[in-house]
Amino acid sequence: MSRMLLSALFVGALMTTTVRAADHPIYGQTMKSLIGADVDLSKYEGKVLLIVNTASECGATPQYGPLQELHAKYKDQGLAVIGFPCNQFGMQEPGTANEISEFCTENYGVQFDMFAKIDVNDENAAPLYKFLTSSKTGLEDTGKVKWNFEKFLVSRDGKVLARFRTKTQPDEPQVVQAIEAALNDK
What is the pLDDT of residue 186? Predict the structure, then answer.
């Protein structure tokens, strides 16, 4: 193959990736971090994501512990746990960004990326969650988030693989097996 053809293929592949990321319903989003910085979610492209809506005053709040353990165990293999505080369920996330950050760090040693408080349902839902809860994911389990700590598993190429409702703990075998399978699918 000529150098010119190889260069054209390489540039074409880069352009396809750039366009794909910009138009992707996950990677095409920019969200605010818990400290207020803009975060382009394209930074997670190529990683396995575990996307979770969180709350500090919920019966499921102890799930921060196993979420942090998953983050610590698998981050070097390409897992990114990302948390989105939400106050839509029983007003169980009333704190400020600073209070949420302190709570997560002091009580659960959270080191995974946390974002600013968002809505996950209804007309003000973040576009990310509008996608995650839609039939566009290809999952059978679609529709509104029912409570805090619902978990969405996303492959390295941005495909939503699974949805785990609140009662499913992050360290249950079905979740861990799904994460490991996604990490091994390169």
Answer: 73
